[in-house]
Amino acid sequence: MTRIDRNAVEVHGIVKHYGETKALDGVDLAVREGTVLGLLGPNGAGKTTLVRVLSTLIKPDAGTAFVGGYDVLRQPKQLRRTIGLTGQYASVDEALSGYENLYLIGRLLDLSAKDAKARAFELLERFSLTDAAKRPAKGYSGGMRRRLDLAASMIGRPKVLYLDEPTTGLDPRTRNEVWDEVQRMVGEGSTVLLTTQYMEEAEQLADELTVIDKGRVIAGGGIQELKTQVGGQSLQVRPTRPAELPEMARSLQEAGIPATFSEESGLLSVHLTDEGQLTTVIGVLGTRGFGVAGIDTKLPSLDEVFLTITGKSSVPAQARDKEPVA
Amino acid sequence: MSTATLNPAPGAAPALPADDTRIGLRAHLRHLGALTRRNLMRIKADPESMLDALLVPVIMIVLFVYVFGGAMAADQHTYMQYMVPGLLGTTGLNLAMALGTGLNTDFQTGVMDRFRTLPIGRSTVLLSKMIAETLRAVVAFAVLIGFAMILGMDIVGGPLKLLAAVGLSLVFGASLMWVSMLLGMSLRSAQAVQGMSMLVMMPLQFGSSIFARPSTMPGWLEAFTEHNPLSALADACRALINDQPVGNSVLTVLIWAAAITVVTAPLAVARFRKRT
Questions:
Q1: What per-residue confidence (pLDDT) applies to B89?
Q2: Are the CB atoms for A67 and A82 separated by under 8 Å?
Q3: Which site among A27, A93, A162 would you substitute to test the B interface, given the most B Cβ atoms closer than 10 Å to its Cβ?
Q4: Which of A125, A76, B260, A59 is closest to A67 using CA atoms?
Q5: Pairwise CB contact (< 8 Å): A81 & B21
Q6: Contact A59/A251 with Cβ under 8 angstroms?
Q7: Full set of structural domains in chain A with CATH
Q8: Which end of chain B is more exposed for a tag (fewer CB within 10 A), N or C?
Q9: Out of B5, B20, B41, closest to residue A96 by CB
Q10: DSSP string, B96-114
């Protein structure tokens, strides 16, 4: 398969204010065709507002956005044929059965009665809902409902899928089912914009990440890229004699390297901010004669990345304030 | 291939075509059919709502005719001929009020958002609700009239005049659908819509000529009752069914219906547009 570097979603300087609240304050992002962009951010960061703008549910105050090449403001109807939405809000009709929900959406997407029926059964089968097809959706479990939601968003074979916190509140097994289904859709060529609060989910599904906070993009890039960007690696040393841990830490601190240790895990941790530090650590430990049983460097977890980025977000935000707002 | 975009860069000449996928009449009708079907299935899935629409008039007939009937008129039959046509008039309007509740639920549950991400006309959603409520009203009329006839009510005016009474009631009910829509979109929950509708409807229903002659009421209430559109509606239905002269009651109902529509329909549509 040839790689096509085109953007299925493009967002330029989108602003949405609710009174004093700046839900979106000049957001730029792009999702390449056939990839998954993970949109991360704490509660109230503006993730859902952005998805609503991109689904034509709300109009932005400023900025432009294109989905599948269609302008959210000027070509809403064409755009709606391109997208599918599964979210915390866009929902199925609980009084209707799973089948009736899917059939209705098929008809509203201009499928013939026959095609709408066939498509509904196809998706029910695919999402393991065939047995529950004729039962009202209000009797469905959380996982079944979410699967029906996903199926509903896929009736029209959308090129771009928005998944707004698709696994919030699901048990691990159901969550894995949803993940499998998302991966399958991407395999079939869909582009996905995924909002989530779960780092694990982003790591599992996303090709690239964009972190937003207080309506602004505060970081973005590949997962590895983001991890290194946040601050190097973390070094963990396992001493042969755990009793020496406090002394090891003190020696390193004397050498100007901040080190922490945990007696519980028996590990000494050093946060490496430049490459020379690793040599210094090994040198210090060697000359002082500490026994080292094991040594390991690792990138910070996405959770650490997320906390670091959102924790210091006020600094770059202030820097950006000086730029003119488009 | 380097990163290319599917659209001209922002700031480039706006060469984009306008939203060219106009929805054709046939597509509109198909959407309308699908959504009406959905609304009817909702009624089927929630039989209690239908029970409410059917049982309340039936209970009212039994209650008023047999409990108060003898005291209100010479005999129960005479009172039935007086009261039931008036009650008929209000059936359409009770059902109109259900529209707001349904609309409110659709907004609250996110179903409306789902519809809004589909390429359909937004008015189709509304129109389908009106059609479903009207169909429901027709069923309610049939039950009410059938039940009253079993109890011995005479349709003196004949079937055509009966149809005219039902039609008049539907026309007036349709004008109240706009009011109901406004309530449905203005209040927070479906329960609030229901409560508010009750609050408005109760005094209007009882402060009318439906159950008792206004001439028996104290002066201030009589004045209110005489100008209450439900009195005109009750008088018109009563005259049609009992084959009496309608006077200007039919015209009064039509003027009221037109006035309510002219005032509330644009407000309701504007509010709906703002929220969708």
A1: 76
A2: yes
A3: A93
A4: A76
A5: yes
A6: no
A7: 7-228 (3.40.50.300), 233-298 (3.30.70.2030)
A8: N
A9: B41
A10: HHHHHHHHHHHHHHTHHHH
Handedness of CA B164, B166, B169, B170 (dihedral sign): negative
Contact B113 A108 (CB under 8 A): no
Could you give phi then psi for residue B184, rounded to 5 degrees?
Answer: -60, -35
Q: How far apart are CA A171 and CA A169, in angstroms?
A: 7
B97: closest CA of chain A, how far (Å): 20
Rounded average pLDDT over A116-123 = 95
Please report, as a single letter, which amino acid is at residue B126: L
CA atoms of B180 and B133, how far apart (whole Å)? 12
Alpha helices in chain A (DSSP H): 47-54, 76-82, 98-108, 113-126, 142-154, 172-187, 199-205, 223-231, 245-254, 276-287, 302-311, 314-321
**B117 and A64: CB-CB below 8 Å?**
no
Yes or no, beta carbons of A90 and B117 under 8 Å apart: yes
- Give the C-alpha separation, A85 to B114, whole Å: 8
Q: pLDDT: is A162 or B57 the higher one? A: A162
Whole-angstrom Cα distance, residue B37 to residue B41?
6
Facing residue for B16 by CB, picked from A7, A74, A95: A74
Mean pLDDT on A236-257: 87
Residues 6+ apart with CB under 8 A from A226: A209, A211, A219, A220, A302, A305, A309
Q: List phi, psi (to 5°) of B152.
A: 110, 15
Rg of chain A over Cα atoms, rounded to whole angstroms, equals: 24
Cα–Cα nearest to A129, from A170, A97, A165:
A97
Q: What is the pLDDT of residues B70-110, one digit of tens each?
A: 787 778 888 889 888 888 877 877 778 888 888 998 988 88
State ipTM. Answer: 0.80
**CA distances for B156 relative to B79, B238, B244, angstroms:** 15, 10, 9
Place of tokens 């209450």: B228
Alpha carbon distance A237, A109 (integer Å): 60
d(CA A165, CA A51): 11
Which stretches within B22-75 are classed as H helix? 25-45, 47-62, 69-72
pLDDT (0 to 100) of residue B14: 42
Furthest-apart CA atoms within chain A: distance in Å: 80
Q: Which among B38, B46, B114 has CB closest to A90?
A: B114
Stretch A172-186: mean pLDDT, rounded?
A: 86
A192 vs A209: CA distance, rounded Å:
12
Q: Give the span between the Cα atoms of B229 and B89, in whole angstroms.
A: 11
The closest CB to that of B19, out of A7, A75, A83, belongs to A75
| Tens-place pLDDT, residues A190-201 | 899 999 888 788
In terms of Cα–Cα distance, which of B172, B179, B151 is closest to B91?
A: B172
Q: What is the DSSP letter of B182?
A: H
Residue, of A245 and A5, whose pLDDT is higher: A245
C-alpha–C-alpha distance, residues B276 and B271, integer Å: 9
Contacts of A13 by beta carbon, 8 Å cutoff, 6+ apart: A26, A27, A28, A62, A63, A64, A325, A326
> Looking only at Cα atoms, what is the longest distance across chain B?
93
